[in-house]
Amino acid sequence: MRFYAWAAPIRYVGYVHCGMCGNMDLQRISSEHGAGTMAWLFRLLRFPTYRCAPCRNRFFSLRVFHRIVPRQHPVEERSESHHSVTPT
User: pTM to 2 decimals?
Assistant: First the structure.
């Protein structure tokens, strides 16, 4: 219990996410590639199948699909004010 943490933030628990790593940038795949002990039942009921690219986990889920991709912050250019040479 000391190091317990949820895989996904509480705000996004209602959306589809990987149960192993919490990734929300998932790929939709064919149901024939789904894994698990009840996969035959999920295929029969036509549950959506997803794949997590980083951990290669394949799973079925009935949660709402909403792709949430981490935002890339642009690299800011540094000003070289302390290295400028003043003419004498």
Answer: 0.62
